[in-house]
């Protein structure tokens, strides 16, 4: 098993549009299926309720690390932390990076989640497998979102 997940997708949308879909908390929530309580801010925890069927009991938590406009958006979180009543706070977090690059008429979006080697051994393989599958779906979700809503406006943060 690797320490990192990497997914790449070419989106038929300009970098500015993809950036907005990633960093406007309402848009992020729409394609990621999480109802966030407020905007993303570097150094602050983003919190919300998962709206994906079967996971509505999960509170989504991630700490925004970096927001380099139209280049890099990164977060840390506890991967696959879905068991009710389990305190994951003592576990190391993984780093999620969304990198954007112009690509022809659109955007190449590269997602990397790294740090699985630090996850406790009894959870590591399942967290990796579930997130690997989950990111494949989320990359398709963002593609559908930006291509179906090419002009959707947001506040950028």
From TrEMBL:
<dbReference type="GO" id="GO:0032259">
    <property type="term" value="P:methylation"/>
</dbReference>
<comment type="similarity">
    <text>Belongs to the AHA1 family.</text>
</comment>
<dbReference type="Pfam" id="PF08327">
    <property type="entry name" value="AHSA1"/>
</dbReference>
<feature type="domain" description="Activator of Hsp90 ATPase homologue 1/2-like C-terminal">
    <location>
        <begin position="12"/>
        <end position="144"/>
    </location>
</feature>
<keyword id="KW-0489">Methyltransferase</keyword>
<dbReference type="InterPro" id="IPR023393">
    <property type="entry name" value="START-like_dom_sf"/>
</dbReference>
<dbReference type="GO" id="GO:0008168">
    <property type="term" value="F:methyltransferase activity"/>
</dbReference>
<keyword id="KW-0808">Transferase</keyword>
<protein>
    <submittedName>
        <fullName>Vanillate O-demethylase oxidoreductase VanB</fullName>
    </submittedName>
</protein>
<dbReference type="InterPro" id="IPR013538">
    <property type="entry name" value="ASHA1/2-like_C"/>
</dbReference>
């Amino acid at each position: 098993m690797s320490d990192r997940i990497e997914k790449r997708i070419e989106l038929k949308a300009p970098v500015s549009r993809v950036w907005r879909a990633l960093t406007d908390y309402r848009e992020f929530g729409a394609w990621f299926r999480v109802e966030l309580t407020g905007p993303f801010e570097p150094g602050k925890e983003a919190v919300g309720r998962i709206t994906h069927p079967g996971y509505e009991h999960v509170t989504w938590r991630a700490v925004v690390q970096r927001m380099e406009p139209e280049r890099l958006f990164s977060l840390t979180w506890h991967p696959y932390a879905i068991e009710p009543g389990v305190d994951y706070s003592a576990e190391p977090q993984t780093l999620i990076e969304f990198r954007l690059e112009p690509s022809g008429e659109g955007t190449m979006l590269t997602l990397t989640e790294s740090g699985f080697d630090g996850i406790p051994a009894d959870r590591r393989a399942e967290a990796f497998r579930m997130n690997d599958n989950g990111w494949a779906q989320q990359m398709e979700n963002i593609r559908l979102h930006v291509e179906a809503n090419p002009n959707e406006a947001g506040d950028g943060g």
